[in-house]
Amino acid sequence: MALELCQLLLTQSLGPGAPQLDKDAAPWQPQLQAALQECKLRLGAAGPTQGSASSSATLCVAARVVDLMLLQGPSLNVMDDPQRTLLHLAAANGHAAAFQLLIDKGPAVHAVDSRQRTPLHLAAANGHAAVCELLIDKGPAVHAVDSRQWTPLHFAAASGHTAVCELLIAKGAAIDAEAILQCTPLHFAAATGHTATCGLLIAKGAAVAAANSSRWTPLHFAAASGHAAMCELLIASGAAVDAATTLQRTPLQFAAASGHAATCELLITKGAAVQRGAQFGESPLHCAAACTHAAASAETCMVLLSKGADINAVNSHSATPLHAAATVTEPAAAAEVCKVLLEHGAAVDAVNAHQRTPLEQASSRAQFEACQVLLLHGADPANCSASSQGFVRFISTLLQRNQQLEQQVREWEQVPVNLRAVLVEAGNTLLGSQAVAGRRR
Length: 441
Hints:
Blueprint: H1 2-14, H2 29-45, H3 53-72, H4 86-93, H5 96-105, H6 119-125, H7 129-137, H8 152-158, H9 162-170, H10 185-192, H11 195-203, H12 218-225, H13 228-236, H14 251-257, H15 261-269, H16 284-289, H17 294-306, H18 321-326, H19 331-343, H20 358-364, H21 368-376, H22 386-414, H23 417-440
């Protein structure tokens, strides 16, 4: 039977030219070695445009199965390194014919691998509805959990396999089963942006307000990932737009912290509070200013400001959004966001609870570009501590020289074009005369 499985996989993957295995021939190893070599040759020769993805997957599985049997003997009970049986491999790759061959005479359908995953977990994760149905009909529980308490429905939802989700629910899967950290399938579908799958789960009764161990709802996951359409669906289905986590952070703060401007705009349109502070008083604008993606952070800040965010709001440490921007580790982001905030009226010399200004914050992290922006907008170097004075003076000197050079360039641009050549020649003559006089001395 083991050699029959090998023959089936070889024929599926290699076609009419597949090696023909003789189950009565002895020894059997040379046959499998030749088959494995043929699989490897075909895999090596296959280019990106040759064959379909499914045929390549079948070829890989064929090579793996043959390799396992060479190592462990011609048996249907061989296992690979994660302790996956041949039934796991067939389920994961959707090989219905191989699956049919194995399901009655191979490993038990409820066998688990090293992560406690059954073949049904793998079939659901990869969207193989037909294989899932065959497995369920043979008896494995649809509510089986792996080492992280994920059910097959969690896997299908996270991967956006809507048809598999519908099948599992119809077969009795618990729609609000809780995995590790108390996350439901709807949490995973929301986080990965699978709107159709979310729509199905909600239609089948999934709890839109379900909160995990940190009080994150599906809307928090969708907002943090920037899935605006998903957020709209969840809010329309009853999700609380200002639901708070254990740290009192709202979906708007999650979207702002990740630089998702469009999602922020949607949430505010749906009623999210633009001034609400989290556990340490940080507003959505604080969160956006601290984002490390320059363009996304700047755009998000402008959206929040256009919706009425207080540009000089302070958190529990009396730090403003400008303080948050000045401490960003990404230089381009720090400079760009500081510029946006200052152009919208941020207090350049505001002090936090530790009497530190944004310039002090930026200089203490050697943020050259951010310090330049702050100085150009009037930040007072005298407000910096002694340890930062040297760095700030260095940048101030460079700025002054740059400004002098820019002034000289502007003055030169005012000179008529027909006089520039005369001035250049006169300058060269003067320099030549000075050089000759220097040599005589």
